[in-house]
Amino acid sequence: MLIAALALGMVCGAAQTGPEPTVEQEVASPPPAIDSLVTTEWLSEHLGDPDLVVLDCTVVVQQNEDGTVDIVNGRPNYESGHIPSAGFADLLSDLADTDSELQFAVPAPEEFASAMEALGVGDDTRVVLYDAMGSPWAARVWWMLRWIGFDRAALLDGGLAAWTAEGRPLSTDPVERPAGTLTVAVRPHLIADRGEVQAAIDDPGVHIVDVLPEPHYRGEMAMYARSGHIPSAANIPVMGLTDETGRYRSLDELAAMHPTDHGARYITYCGGGIAASSSAFVMTRLGYADVAVYTASLQEWAADPELPMETVPAQ
Fold it and tell me: Which site in 23, 66, 137, 209 is 20 to 30 Å from 46, CA atoms measured?
């Protein structure tokens, strides 16, 4: 692209009168790249980079004595100690459509971009995302950034747990960054809706991936309105994608868990589209070219008795 741009400049210059261009031309350097997964060592070395925005995406899941769970805003967790320079990305309010009946509903692209801009994210920034719960919340923000056309974001491998386990510093200081400017170029194919999922059940060219625990997939437990799985879905539980430290397994290990057909379309789902984002993140790193997240997932699907679900007969 740089060669083409210089060639175009030469052609345009030939049609103009006036002094010839000087030999030394100022050419804007492209912003530095970033891998989609960074280590704690990398982040520690780059925390001072002026173009780096670090965001804590924590949402806390608390289990009650009766087995139910509460979804709690992670801001108090952030305020009690976060990676130095990190801002807080609020998936329960700023980064969600709070008018929707569904939790974590995806906001309009422009609204999401505006919220990210307020956190300092812009076209020329690099972004590192982490959470305190094993990375799925950070993966959801990563996926939405890709959805609006932003590819300069990474997950911190192992998240906050890996950072603190190594004795790295935390801060309680509030963080404010100048607002960024994001160019929105939506990739609608990265998010699937119920209509596409329903059509995919009988479409051999589209593979549905259930990332919930195997007992739920089989119908042995119910985490949502109905147990079981969407017909034709394969089960690749998200918990198997990370090791005991919360870091993602090696690419070879992850590849062995997934289908070999990299050219097909895949749709991942879970309960609310959070764990499914972590799976989609892994599949993207593995080179799958056409992956979508059914962001409404079973909180929408299982609640509608008209939509089919299956269970696996006991052996």
Answer: 137
